[in-house]
């Protein structure tokens, strides 16, 4: 193992609390690898970096073990073949690419499919208790888009199991260090409730990270040649979201300001049915199986409006009368599916249209009703968790009255552009894994692929960062004092300013803008309007002021987060305006078709160091290797690829 | 829309007072919504810890009308229109500011428990466990670490001096979880009593009462652990057995330097 | 120095003088518990030392408070195992061999511990209500370390339950005209015995002994089955604890009233 960074020569005070500039003392810590984010990807990256002998810090915006990963329910997709032995990585790869509408980075999808089983088994070896098959192996469940039962799971709380297992693995490593080195924090330390506001660079290379400790409001500097971003998504920029407090796009914004590139940011996954009422639970998912089991969507006039929204391409495949639709549940062979079961983007678009036409429910959604569709007893038996969820949180008895639902922002497919094998971003020393990284899921993520993504690329980020540090030798980047002063001034500005607007109100406006204008259904004029509004918001956010003192001041913290949300929102709106097609998580009302030409194009975002100017560029999508292309039928490829690409396809055997 | 009267503890470093607020409440809201409205309208620096707002992360533990609860799962219609709702920080842990407390006690205790210890000969992917064998520990792994059980436990809540010797229901349950894990090979029974303070527990079940995940902490974790400890330490028959050479005890020690 | 692991010395608990902010009637439950326990203890003490009205010769009804009857003065037929050669003094219950163990079984019971620690010892009186004690050591020291012997009292209580069952069954074969017969007294004795079994078998130590202590259930299917059944009973341990106090009093009272001639047994058959 390598020497801890503390013992290496450097100009800045080594180790803990040093004396920063006179204005405000700054604690300094030196590490080999700093991981920003303590969700699944961050913890897995930290474990790997530590196991590679690197002195590692994990910086967590929340308490240790509270990250958004705990919200994941379904499971982690891994082709272990425990339930169906025909499953293998090739099938998983194919499903992933289909789900992403052929826009995925093929190498990432390949690594993911190949390595996911090992990552899941590893968790089990660290103490995770997945549900079991009859012969004692890890059970796997079916999920949308997956050809075979593939999701390792624990009831409906798989994310919690994963975060707890990784958390306990970190503790186990710390215990080993405590025994060997006398200090559990010697080589791997978690900085809870600490937020990074700026990445620090030395020339082109990453030199560390600057942030504040929530509890005290004091600043802290991490000097490290390698920084792994694992900050999750951007959902808190939208009003209605299933995402938690931390999801303010910090990693996306940090990467942009550090000079790295983001790609695919226009692809945001909206789920058509989230709770809309009461306000406390707005955005929480209502599972698709409610509709699968017979639930129907109605507007305020009591009409099953989905019959009016079957698009041309699907006409013929869906029932045209309520009678036929109702017969499908018992006799699917001789009847067509009810239009409530159209693809998610279609359903979401229709709900949106009904609400805009003034036929929405009292709280801005539509009605999802099972109460008139089957006996109360059957609802309780078939949808126990939904019954409980609405009873507990909304005081709604779904056996007696309809639910109110509407689309909710769920996941961002886009993110930091990384090298698939090492997760290295375009800035030396910067790495990214998990939701903050882009490419893996293409234009749409399959359920279950998120948890396995965290594990596979979390580990690769730890490995990548460790080998980058090894490659540096003695030539380590240094943190510049001027950068520290600038970061400190930026962070303190909202607190020192008076008379500016409240960060809470600005946040509400930002969320409303993104929700209304860059939401599930997008139009050029609306997005231009959004960009205008965001531009004006930028001025106001630049003058936001937070009241109170520095210790644990949520208003101040939100003011700092706002900057990130705004930057990422602008980027998302720009990319969404640019891409003139509908694909996966990007639905254009004015360009409803999927375009093979657009498939070859990846939209890339950059920003200046201050995060003031965002620029949009284009880049060709990485070509899939021939052996991977050979996993698909030519007829399927023909739906996605351009004529030119099809002409280039190698001839030969097809599986 | 209606108005509600709140009394919220505001202060830091232990010093503080209850401050009265009158605030709008909309239908269907929870206490956390009201706290957020206070932040946005009257008290922008009101400190409250929260995260997922769906009862899954266990961050927003506070005491509402004297009961330890999750603010995000406490619906306003629990209270009458004229009730004054008192919100205080959880009493067992040091207060950082307003409703936010320093819960590091819990992380310290977590580190002292010897981790999952599989048989070194079993490689990843080779474990075979039946559903019936994992179910007991799975119940405990539903824990969202809101620390309400540790907060309500009188052993440390009313006797701060016991914090050093008592790990609280959360971490005694963690010991039970590992002791019931079908692939674990360590034996934490001695340290459960000597270092983690199982003997302090007088099974008065407040931990079970406050658990938002409805884990039967007392009946399924603490009492079975007490029984296991009794077998190891207080059972004369077992003691006699060990004296005549049956099953030499291999006790796993507490993790040093934690 | 460890931010995660150690509280900052400056931080103290919120200084709040009110013992609780609970607005519900948290005193009610401990008061009811004290009344219930005191009522039973009063009645049981009186009856145990009464040394009379415990046996109905005609139907062979023996109250559980006097089983087995061991004094030389026990009424003929009431002593299943025969008697000791001497008459018990006034301070010695006739069932001196069993009552102390039944008392210990219930004293060390995980449910009763909760009940009296809360209601009598006030540690704590109710959840999140500040308790009145200066210091607290729980069950870490003598004599409360003795609570760990609950498992032994469980086995003894099981044996006593067998005896009570025997008493109840024997009475079935002493009808009015000899031979099989059923009266209300028989039903009460039987119901009491069934409830006693429910209480005894739902014991946490029993649950541990019959299966809970195993790490692997799948390798011991029979014990897993037993553990499952006991676990189902165990969830109602508290209810059985209270119900059996009531059923014991009721059974004893019925026998006492018959024995003293205040009432006569309602006979359904013979």
TrEMBL record, chain A:
Keywords linked to the UniProt accession: FAD, Flavoprotein, Oxidoreductase
Bias kind Basic and acidic residues: ranges: 326-346
Residues involved in FAD binding: 37-42, 60-75, 250, 435, 450-451
Residues bound to substrate: 271, 287, 410, 445
Domain FAD-dependent oxidoreductase 2 FAD-binding: 32-451
Fumarate reductase/succinate dehydrogenase flavoprotein-like C-terminal domain segment(s): 507-622
Region of interest called Disordered, as start-end residue ranges on this chain: 1-23, 321-346
Catalytic residues, chain numbering: 344
Low complexity bias spans: 13-23
SUPFAM superfamilies cross-referenced by the UniProt entry: FAD/NAD(P)-binding domain, Succinate dehydrogenase/fumarate reductase flavoprotein C-terminal domain, Succinate dehydrogenase/fumarate reductase flavoprotein, catalytic domain
Cofactor(s) listed: FAD
Database matches in InterPro entries: FAD-dep_OxRdtase_2_FAD-bd, FAD/NAD-bd_sf, Fum_R/Succ_DH_flav-like_C_sf, Fum_Rdtase/Succ_DH_flav-like_C, SdhA/FrdA/AprA, Succ_DH/fumarate_Rdtase_cat_sf
Pfam families: FAD_binding_2, Succ_DH_flav_C
A GO MF term: steroid dehydrogenase activity, acting on the CH-CH group of donors
NCBIfam families: PRK07803.1 (NF005866)
Name of protein: Succinate dehydrogenase / fumarate reductase flavoprotein subunit
Organism whose genome encodes this protein: Allonocardiopsis opalescens
Phylogenetic lineage: Bacteria, Bacillati, Actinomycetota, Actinomycetes, Streptosporangiales
UniProtKB/TrEMBL annotation, chain B:
PROSITE patterns: 2FE2S_FER_1 (PS00197), 2FE2S_FER_2 (PS51085)
Cofactor(s) in the UniProt record: [2Fe-2S] cluster; [4Fe-4S] cluster; [3Fe-4S] cluster
GO function term, MF aspect, one: electron transfer activity
Pfam families found in the cross-reference section: Fer2_3 (PF13085), Fer4_8 (PF13183)
Keyword Oxidoreductase included in the entry's annotation: yes
GO annotation, biological process: respiratory electron transport chain; tricarboxylic acid cycle
Keywords per UniProt: 2Fe-2S, 4Fe-4S, Iron, Iron-sulfur, Metal-binding, Oxidoreductase
GO cellular component, one term: plasma membrane
Annotated InterPro entries: 2Fe-2S_ferredoxin-like_sf, 2Fe-2S_ferredoxin-type, 2Fe2S_fd_BS, 4Fe4S_Fe-S-bd, Beta-grasp_dom_sf, Helical_ferredxn, SDH/FRD_Iron-Sulfur, Succ_DH/fum_Rdtase_Fe-S
Pathway the protein takes part in: Carbohydrate metabolism; tricarboxylic acid cycle
Ranges where the 2Fe-2S ferredoxin-type domain occurs: 4-91
PANTHER family named in the record: SUCCINATE DEHYDROGENASE [UBIQUINONE] IRON-SULFUR SUBUNIT, MITOCHONDRIAL, SUCCINATE DEHYDROGENASE IRON-SULFUR PROTEIN
Membership in a protein family: Belongs to the succinate dehydrogenase/fumarate reductase iron-sulfur protein family.
Protein name per UniProt: Succinate dehydrogenase / fumarate reductase iron-sulfur subunit
Automatic annotation (TrEMBL), chain C:
Superkingdom of the organism of origin: Bacteria
Transmembrane segments annotated in the record for this chain: 28-46, 90-112, 152-173, 179-199, 240-263
Alphabetized UniProt keyword annotations: Membrane, Transmembrane, Transmembrane helix
Keyword hit for Transmembrane: yes
Protein known as: Succinate dehydrogenase membrane anchor subunit
Protein species of origin: Allonocardiopsis opalescens
């Amino acid at each position: 193992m390598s020497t801890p960074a503390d013992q290496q020569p450097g100009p800045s005070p080594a180790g803990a609390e040093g004396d920063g500039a006179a204005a405000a003392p700054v604690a300094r810590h030196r590490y080999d690898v700093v991981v920003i984010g303590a969700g699944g990807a961050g913890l897995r990256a930290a474990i790997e970096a530590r196991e590679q002998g690197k002195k590692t810090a994990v910086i967590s915006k929340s308490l240790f073990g509270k990250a958004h990963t705990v919200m994941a329910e379904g499971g982690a997709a891994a082709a272990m073949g425990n339930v169906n032995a025909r499953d293998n990585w090739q099938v998983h790869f194919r499903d992933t690419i289909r789900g992403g509408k052929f826009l995925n980075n093929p190498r990432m999808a390949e690594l993911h499919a190949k390595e996911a089983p090992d990552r899941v088994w590893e968790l089990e070896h660290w103490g995770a208790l997945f549900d079991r098959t009859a012969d004692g192996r890890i059970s796997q469940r079916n999920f949308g888009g997956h050809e075979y039962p593939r999701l390792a799971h624990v009831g409906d709380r798989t994310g919690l199991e994963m975060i707890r297992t990784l958390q306990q693995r970190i503790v186990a490593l710390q215990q080993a260090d405590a025994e060997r080195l006398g200090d559990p924090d010697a080589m791997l330390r978690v900085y809870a409730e600490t937020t990074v506001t700026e990445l620090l660079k030395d020339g082109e290379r990453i030199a560390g990270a600057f942030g504040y400790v929530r509890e005290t409001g004091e600043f802290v500097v991490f000097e490290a040649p390698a920084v792994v971003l694992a900050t999750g998504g951007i959902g808190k920029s939208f009003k209605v979201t299933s995402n938690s407090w931390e999801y303010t796009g910090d990693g996306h914004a940090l990467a942009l300001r550090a000079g790295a590139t983001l790609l695919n940011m226009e692809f945001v996954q909206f789920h058509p049915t989230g709770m809309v009422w009461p306000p406390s639970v707005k955005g929480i998912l209502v599972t698709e199986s409610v509709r699968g089991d017979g639930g129907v969507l109605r507007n305020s006039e009591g009409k099953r409006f989905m019959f009016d929204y079957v698009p041309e391409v699907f006409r013929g495949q869906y029932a045209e009368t309520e009678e036929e639709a109702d017969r499908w549940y018992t006799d699917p062979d001789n009847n067509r599916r009810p239009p409530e079961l159209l693809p998610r983007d279609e359903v979401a678009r229709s709900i949106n249209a009904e609400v805009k036409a003034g036929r929405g429910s009292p709280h801005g959604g539509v009605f999802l009703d099972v109460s008139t569709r089957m006996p109360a007893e059957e609802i309780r038996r078939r949808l126990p968790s939904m019954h409980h969820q609405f009873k507990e949180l909304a005081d709604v008895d779904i056996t007696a009255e309809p639910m109110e639902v509407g689309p909710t922002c769920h996941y961002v497919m886009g993110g930091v552009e990384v090298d698939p094998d090492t997760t290295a971003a375009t800035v030396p020393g910067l790495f990214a894994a998990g939701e903050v990284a882009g490419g893996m899921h293409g234009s749409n993520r399959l359920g279950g692929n998120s948890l396995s993504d965290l594990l596979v690329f979390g580990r690769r980020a730890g490995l990548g960062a460790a080998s980058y540090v090894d490659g540096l030798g003695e030539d380590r980047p240094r943190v510049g004092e001027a950068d520290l002063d600038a970061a400190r001034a930026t962070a303190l500005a909202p607190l020192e300013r008076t008379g500016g607007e409240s960060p809470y109100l600005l946040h509400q406006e930002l969320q409303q803008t993104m929700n209304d204008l860059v939401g599930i259904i997008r139009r050029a004029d609306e997005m231009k309007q959004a960009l205008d509004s965001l531009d004006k918001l930028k001025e106001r956010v630049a003058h936001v002021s937070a009241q109170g003192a520095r210790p644990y001041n949520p208003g101040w913290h939100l003011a700092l987060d706002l900057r990130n949300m705004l930057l990422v929102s602008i980027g998302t709106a720009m990319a969404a305006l640019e891409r003139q097609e509908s694909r996966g998580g990007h639905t254009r009302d004015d360009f409803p078709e999927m375009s093979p030409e657009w498939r070859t194009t990846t939209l890339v975002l950059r920003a200046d160091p201050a995060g003031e100017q965002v620029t949009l560029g284009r880049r060709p999508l990485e070509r899939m290797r021939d052996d991977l292309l050979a996993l698909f039928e030519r007829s399927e490829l023909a739906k996605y690829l351009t004529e030119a690409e099809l002409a280039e396809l190698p001839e030969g055997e097809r599986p | 829309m209606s108005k509600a009267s709140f009394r919220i503890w505001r202060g830091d470093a232990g010093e503080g007072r209850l401050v009265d607020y009158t605030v709008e409440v909309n239908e269907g809201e929870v206490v956390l919504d009201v706290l957020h409205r206070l932040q946005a309208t009257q008290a922008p620096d009101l400190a409250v810890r929260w995260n997922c707002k769906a009862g899954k992360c266990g961050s927003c533990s506070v005491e509402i009308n004297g009961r330890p609860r999750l603010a995000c799962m406490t619906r306003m219609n629990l209270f009458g229109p004229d009730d004054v709702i008192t919100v205080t920080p959880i009493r067992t842990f040091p207060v950082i500011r307003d409703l936010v407390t320093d819960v590091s006690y819990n992380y310290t205790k977590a580190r002292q428990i010897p981790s999952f210890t599989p048989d070194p000969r079993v490689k990843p992917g080779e474990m075979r466990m039946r559903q019936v064998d994992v179910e007991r520990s799975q119940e405990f792994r539903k824990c969202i670490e809101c620390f309400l059980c540790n907060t309500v436990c009188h052993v440390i809540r009313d006797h701060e001096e016991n914090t050093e010797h008592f790990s609280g229901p959360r971490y005694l349950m963690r010991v039970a979880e590992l002791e019931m894990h079908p692939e674990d090979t360590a034996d934490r029974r001695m340290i459960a009593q000597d270092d983690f303070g199982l003997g302090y527990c007088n099974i008065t079940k407040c931990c079970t009462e406050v658990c938002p995940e409805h884990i039967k902490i007392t009946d399924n974790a603490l009492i079975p652990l007490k029984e296991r400890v009794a077998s190891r330490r207080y059972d004369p028959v077992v003691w006699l057995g060990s004296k005549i050479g049956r099953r030499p005890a291999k006790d796993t020690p507490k993790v040093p330097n934690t | 120095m460890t931010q995660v692991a150690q509280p900052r010395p400056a931080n103290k608990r919120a200084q709040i003088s009110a013992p609780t902010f609970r607005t519900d009637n948290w005193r009610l439950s401990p008061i009811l518990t004290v009344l219930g326990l005191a009522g039973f203890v009063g009645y049981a003490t009186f009856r145990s030392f009464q040394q009379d009205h415990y046996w109905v010769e005609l139907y062979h009804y023996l109250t559980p408070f006097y089983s087995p009857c061991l004094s030389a003065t026990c009424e003929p037929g009431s002593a299943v195992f025969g008697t000791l050669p001497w008459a018990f003094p006034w301070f010695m219950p006739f069932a001196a061999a069993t009552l102390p163990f039944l008392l210990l079984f219930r004293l060390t019971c995980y449910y009763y511990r909760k009940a009296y620690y809360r209601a009598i010892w006030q540690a704590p009186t109710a959840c999140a209500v500040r308790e009145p004690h200066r210091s607290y050591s729980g069950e870490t020291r003598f004599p409360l370390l003795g609570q760990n012997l609950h498992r032994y009292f469980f086995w003894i209580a099981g044996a006593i339950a067998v005896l009570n069952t025997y008493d109840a069954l024997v009475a079935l074969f002493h009808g009015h005209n000899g031979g099989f017969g059923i009266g209300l007294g028989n039903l009460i004795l039987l119901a009491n015995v069934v409830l006693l079994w429910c209480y005894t078998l739902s014991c946490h130590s029993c649950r541990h002994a019959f299966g809970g202590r195993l790490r692997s259930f799948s390798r011991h299917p029979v014990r897993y089955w037993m553990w499952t059944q006991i676990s189902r009973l165990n969830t109602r341990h508290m209810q059985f604890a209270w119900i059996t106090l009531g059923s014991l009093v009721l059974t004893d009272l019925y026998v006492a009233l018959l024995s003293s001639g205040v009432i006569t047994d309602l006979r359904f058959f013979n």
